[in-house]
């Protein structure tokens, strides 16, 4: 499967990985930031479901 045919979440994940790797961000920093982003988007999702 080519990236063009991949689901949107896979395309986004690849873009994010490339961005983070290009900026040489430490893995522990990336994981901490992703946890913050995940919490924020879970909150937004809960608000949409109301």
From TrEMBL:
InterPro entries: DUF2496_YbaM-rel (IPR019630). This is Inner membrane protein. The lineage of its organism: Bacteria, Pseudomonadati, Pseudomonadota, Gammaproteobacteria, Enterobacterales. It holds the Pfam family DUF2496. It comes from Cronobacter condimenti 1330.
